[in-house]
Fold each of these.
Amino acid sequence: MRDLLSMTIPEMQEFMTSIGEKTFRAKQIYEWLHKKGAVSFDEMTNLSKGLREKLAAEAQLRSVSVRAMQESKIDGTRKYLFRLYDGNNVESVWMKYHHGNTICISSQVGCRMGCSFCASTIGGLTRNLSAGEMLSQIYAISRDTGERTSNVVIMGTGEPLDNYEQVVRFLHMISDENGLNISERNLTLSTCGLVPGIRRLAEEKLMINLALSLHAPNDALRREIMPVANSFALRDIREALLYYYRSNHRRLTFEYALIRDVNDTDRCVEELAAFVKGMNCLINLIPVNPVRENGYHETERAGIAAFKKNLEKYGINVTIRREMGRDIDGACGQLRKRCTELDNKL
Ligand code: SAH
């Protein structure tokens, strides 16, 4: 069975030819899937019944379906748990901002990066998501909320650069004028720092934003909390980021989750300032979301404010991440994890 939702228009044209259909059908089907959010062949009313049956016999629509949804009473943020066609689950988050709605999608089922503070990686990696499954998270949320999406961040479960081909395919399809047509400038990919992936992404010449999950300003500390630091040194990551920056001149973002007494010292401020020196960047401070399994605590409010102020003395742009949906299951991966635990009990 072919995965129709992950096909580009040229691929779909080829597919049409292979099943003895006219190529113009490809664009019609593409629009049903990617503009009108169709989840079944029956909805495609400008196709004959015969063609719809043929499609159903040859291809699958591996759309996601809503399994659970939690809405924050504080800010309206919604967290979705989706079921995939093979029974696996992934999470996505919908956030309402004044400047438009942002969706945070997952790129893998689980993750194999092993960051010690992250709930998504506890069960390891199950599998990569297809481009269609990433798109489908957005379509399902648009259907449920009835609202437009202006920004997409690949910051849910998974390491996007560990699923390179499908993620790049997704980026092309989400910005395609025959689909949602979201500007590349409104797309952000967040990585824990896979150097070859960052360099390869630079070669794609996309205008998308890149965020690096830094979380520690030196290799020794970073190795303690992020196993990926054993494979890539900060010096090489920095070089790769500068290489990426030269490809599209988009301001880089560094994510830094503040963990009490681990990475929130004055020394960390100094090292962090030295690391980003001369870069066009923003440091996004995040109070670490406590995960039951790891015993980390977030830096208290005053400590975060002081960390920010000290960084700003170096002329660095710093924001403190608005905590969206704190009341709905905290850190990424927790909703999925809870549901998996529930499944296992049943
Ligand atoms: N693998 C990619 C994208 C997914 S993680 C990456 O590492 O960037 C998305 C972001 O959430 C990353 O910055 C990650 O470090 C952060 N994160 C994970 N667990 C967290 C927690 N408990 N508290 C705060 N941020 C967390």
Amino acid sequence: MLITVLAGGIGGSRFIRGLQRAVESAADPSTITVVGNTGDDIWIHGLRVCPDLDTVMYTLGGGISAERGWGREDETFTVRDELADYGVEPTWFGLGDRDIATHLIRTQSLNAGYTLTQVTEALCQRWQPGVTLLPMSDDRAETHVIVDDPAGATAADGTPLRRALHFQEWWIRYRAELPAHEFVLVGVDTATPARGVLDAISDADLVIFPPSNPVVSIGTILQVPGVADAVRSTSAPVVGVSPIVGGAPVRGMADACLRAIDVETSAAGVALHYGARARGGLLDAWIIDTADAASASEIEASGISCVIAATMMTDLDASADLARVCLDAGRGVSSSDRA
Ligand code: GDP
Ligand code: CA
């Protein structure tokens, strides 16, 4: 069985660990391909940093900080502190000393002409994540956020001037508290999916949207030309898990992202945003938390098959149980239900 997962960072990688556990104990062997979000990627002090790819790689490879959920275990931040003492911006990005080794290798290899796909594969030689980890694209497609000028600058008539911030600056430095007018994926128009991405979706037996941010993780991957069409037209069932539980994100500020694109922060809101494949959308089935059971009928009415389950990934067993629900939901979607 070929399973393809479109993933962001923490939510995506926790789910994939559970999926690995779930398929380990299944009767037929499975191969997992992860299409990772690179819209969060950023140059920091001359280093190319790919936060979501690294979160997946470290989590599946056993190197993630369990406490933080991102970056390396046993991390120190000496280089970051030294840079701050020099007064060099940015100081808000958590660049860890161990983590810097990854970014040094990536930057050097990219400068030598290797693609991000090749560099990611090389880094995974060490971490052995047990999945094929593909960046969504080798091209730069970076999420920027349009906000009112944080310093309060206005035009002559008093209207606030708008600024574009890199996603990381908006998310980390401003904790997504500056209202976002719009997200712009800079470069996406001319980006192409990385080699293997479209085939991984078209040839899959199951496509999963894990509980990743629907706007700046999965939404970004879906904007790469050809990816959404591949999801719409694959013969595999497409099953998603709601990252919104009880009307709020489980972790992070997905509500601030959803607000910017006028989508309600609810399990049903996100489902309807993706839409039913039978009606030109992306989903066959959507897993919602028991806390949101009341939304099931609205989701079903939109043409998406709705499954109610425990979706809090409190530990590996819980993640594996959630992954089994996805596998079952995929089996439950008969081909006649699909477009
Ligand atoms: P990021 O790139 O590190 O922000 O991670 P992702 O985009 O992969 O996932 C972030 C989303 O995962 C957030 O919107 C969270 O609400 C969601 N999330 C995190 N943990 C859980 C969980 O245990 N259960 C569910 N249902 N969603 C979760
Ligand atoms: Ca991310």
